[in-house]
Amino acid sequence: MRKTLLSILLTIPLLVSSLSLAQDNPIVVIQTNKGAITVELWADKAPISVENFLRYTDSNFFDGMVFHRVIPGFMIQGGGFSPDMVQKSTYDAIKNEASASVPNDRGTLAMARTNVVDSATAQFFVNLVDNDFLNHTDETQRGFGYAVFGEVIEGMDVVDTIAKVETATTKGFQNVPTEPVVITSAKRQ
User: Fold this and answer.
1) Burial of 159 by CB count in 10 Å (0-12 exposed, 13-18 middle, 19+ buried)?
2) pLDDT confidence bin for 6, thresholds 50/70/90
3) Three-state secondary structure call for residue 80
């Protein structure tokens, strides 16, 4: 009995600590010309990616950018291009924090990257479905996965609306909305 009580008492501070970390997770409202998307950033699970995203948010980097890649049944991607498909200069790439314990499920935000594991900068995507094939499985280049750093907590209907826009190949880029889906602002709440 005494060991059980002691075990419970030792567990309580850990639970409170975890809860307070989650409560400290930043909220960002991504306002688009299709509506608002509110996201909770998981600083407790992906601190490097969250700090990176907030650096871009706080410098108004995303304002005027577009969701430049839309693939129904997969994801919507933004944060890198202007409406005329000119790529904006970014800060240095960050370390990939992909983890098997933080999967690319529907409604989560993840860092976009090239085939190089640690190449993510400003571009991010919202998963439209559970994209298990993007999850971290091992330390190889192929198995490393894509770092999830938050989730949509309001506005998934806006994300789904964006997923239905007409797309085409534009300036050599595939799956570009024919009518720009503009991020008018991204601000901390």
Assistant:
1) buried
2) very low
3) strand
Encode 27-63: b = buried (16+ Cβ within 10 Å), e = exposed: ebbbbbebeebbbbbbbbbbebbbebbbebbeeebbe
pLDDT for 131-146, tens place per residue? 999 999 999 988 999 9
How does DSSP classify residue 111? E
Alpha helices in 25-141 (DSSP H): 47-58
Could you report the per-residue pLDDT of 73-123, keeping only the tens digit for each? 999 999 999 999 999 999 999 999 999 999 999 999 999 999 999 999 999
Long-range contacts of 140-143 (CB under 8 A, 24+ apart): 141/115, 141/116, 141/117
Task: Report the C-alpha gap between 108 and 47 in whole angstroms.
Answer: 15
- Of the listed ranges 12-21, 33-42, 57-66, 180-189, the one predicted with least confidence: 12-21
Tell me which architecture the domain covering 25-188 has in CATH.
Answer: Beta Barrel (2.40)
Handedness of CA 128, 130, 131, 136 (dihedral sign): positive
Identify the DSSP state of 57: H
- 1 burial level (CB within 10 Å; 0-12, 13-18, 19+): exposed
Task: Provide the sign of the torsion angle of the four alpha carbons 96, 146, 126, 120, taken in this order.
Answer: positive
Dihedral pair phi/psi, residue 23, rounded to 5°: -70, -25
